[in-house]
Amino acid sequence: MQHPTYQRQWPEGFIWGSATAAAQIEGAGREGGKEDSIWDHFARIPGAIANGENLDQAVDHYHRMPQDVRLMKELGLDSYRFSTSWARVRPGDRAVNREGLDFYSRLVDELLEAGILPWLTLYHWDLPQALEEKGGWANRDTAYRFAEYANDVYSALGDRVQHWTTFNEPFCSSLLGYGSGVHAPGRQEPAAAIAAVHHQHLAHGLAVNALRERGAQHLGITLNLSNSIPRNSQDPVDLDAARRFDSLQNRIFLDPILRGAYPEDSLRDLGPFGLPDVILPGDLELISAPLEFLGVNHYHDDLISGHADDAGSDGHSGGAERASASPWIGSEDIAFPSRGLPRTAMGWEVNPDGLRKLLVRLGEEYPSLPPLYITENGAAYEDTVSPDGAVHDVERTRFILDHVASVGEAIDQGADVRGYFVWSLLDNFEWSWGYGKRFGIVRVDYGTLERTVKDSGKAYAGLIAAAQRSTSRLAPALPA
Ligand code: GBH
């Protein structure tokens, strides 16, 4: 593949990786002492997941882990971002399950042996169902249970894992899980969704403080962020809708963590849904504890209109039949018109320059911004397998290389970005869309579960090799 990105030089120590999540790949839903997470439970609700699919087997990573690590090594990954399953580590939220922790301990050993840096996320959406039955994230107590679970994982892996991420995309596990109901637990209760936002923040803060005390040195959180672009920047109705979208998608997550306060306008807009009431004295001090990194997941921008009849864009709903509500609490009038750009199989518009814009904006607007890592970026396309078994996924390859180029431009413009993780290593369980949407740079045959590196995987491996050559050439000699 000829792409200008192969030629550029990257900052020293820049990390190239790929990401997955426990619920999306592991399977072994009832093995090794694991009990149900909210996603196992949700998958049994008729119409919740496309084609009635479930996570019971997923892509069988639980049994194929050593082989999957060999694949990562073949690709030349510097780092692998994965999540631990709370329902495997503390099934039913009872005592710690040794067998569950042992699985992750073996994974970490395999990674280190292969020279791959483990990048661990504690929560990628799979709350133990037993805790949902006590109110889930709408219940403040869940935050304290999370800190206990974080401590358990740290006790088992803290000697070998250096990079700890508390949450992946709290937007989804609060507003989609408790607001729109497109994600587990499938609740459609605006006040519960807003409480979930705050309680996940609190859980993050409690865990950061607990792991910090135990000596953790690289702590962060991953947010999914999107540029909010008013359709007509002269139209006050569009401008206000874009402001409210930016509040719910970006700022209610960024500001408590990076500034120690919710934005004034968010507090005002979300007052009727109880945001001010769930914030107790001392919470924001905990939540804004300093971090070593911010993980950014970015897939697409959002063009925003305040005129409901402007709706035209898909890509803003789940894949299943079950009726969804709006995740835009108090702002159900927000509409997503189309810009006419090419779209991925998710219906998301492709605009690589959006990633540069987002990274530069973060640096401009948040003076205390820690170093950034792109912890997810990638695309679903409908792959076809050639007669020779290869997958010539030209569109995904271009998507990845163009977005990596955009990261490079952001760095040139001053953004402190230190790594890029492509979503995803493997085709996997795409939440309410089931197995119908493939994001992998490695194909999984859902009949045989066999893995095949796609052209995008080969291109990514080539990019990593080229980047490593350029950095080592540039690297100053280390003092003796
Ligand atoms: C990530 O989230 C996840 O971390 C990962 O597990 C997943 O597999 C991957 O991306 C691909 O989807 O209008 O309310 O429906 C995806 C981030 C957030 C992007 C929700 C689309 C639509 C919001 N997504 N967003 S809504």
Index terms:
480 residues; alpha/beta; TIM Barrel; eight-stranded parallel β-barrel; two-stranded parallel sheet; 16 helices; 12 strands; globular; binds ligand GBH
In words, what does this structure look like?
The protein is of the alpha/beta class and 480 residues long. The protein is 40% helix and 12% strand. The chain has a single domain, classed as TIM Barrel (Alpha-Beta Barrel). It has an eight-stranded parallel barrel, surrounded by five helices. The radius of gyration is 21 Å and the shape is globular. The mean pLDDT is 96. It binds ligand GBH. The site of ligand GBH has 17 residues, from α8. Keywords: Carbohydrate metabolism, Cellulose degradation, Glycosidase, Hydrolase, Polysaccharide degradation. Belongs to the glycosyl hydrolase 1 family. This is Beta-glucosidase. It is an enzyme of class 3 (hydrolase).
Q: Tell me about the biggest sheet?
A: 8 strands, parallel, barrel
Instruction: List low-confidence stretches.
Output: none
SS class:
alpha/beta
Termini, distance in Å?
A: 39 Å
Based on CA inertia axes, which overall geometry fits? globular
| Helical fraction | 40-55%
- Rg result: 21 Å
Each distinct ligand: ligand GBH
Q: Give the number of domains.
A: 1
Mean pLDDT: 96
Provide the CATH top-level class. Answer: Alpha Beta
Helix count equals 16
What order do the helices and strands follow?
EHHHEHHEHHEHHEEHHHHEEHEHEEEH
Multimeric status of the protein: single chain
Biggest sheet: strands side by side, in what order?
A: 1-2-3-4-5-7-9-10
